[in-house]
Amino acid sequence: LLAAASYALYALATDVATARRILWIPSPTLIAIGLAVAAASGLVAPLTGQPYMTGLWGVEIPLPFVGGVKIGTPLLFDIGVYFAVVGMATLVV
Questions:
Q1: How far apart are CA 90 and CA 27, in angstroms?
Q2: Helices then strands (H, E): number in the chain?
Q3: pTM for the full model?
Q4: Cα–Cα nearest to 52, from 37, 69, 40
């Protein structure tokens, strides 16, 4: 919602045409991508014999000062929800 609020503030500060130019993916497409990513993150688990939407953890990425961070399906789900929410909020704006 914060990203969509900043988009709305930019649209108020400039004009709608300029604001639409900075959003390089149309809002309905962004919503569809978000829903697809969120649904696909849940479909990974049944492929491994787990129930739908079971969190699976995969690759560990080393980061300085933090250590290793594991990437998993909950992160993909959150990214999908982020895209869907930003797409919906910018569509409303």
A1: 6
A2: 4, 2
A3: 0.80
A4: 40
**H or E stretch including 69?**
strand 67-72
Sign of CA dihedral 86, 4, 72, 61: positive
pLDDT in tens, the chain (93 residues): 888 888 889 988 998 888 888 888 888 999 999 999 999 998 888 888 888 888 888 878 888 888 888 888 898 999 999 999 999 988 887
CB-CB contact of 90 with 34 (8 Å): no
Q: What is the dihedral of CA 17, 21, 25, 26, to 10 degrees?
A: 10
> Residue 17 has which token pair?
């045409």
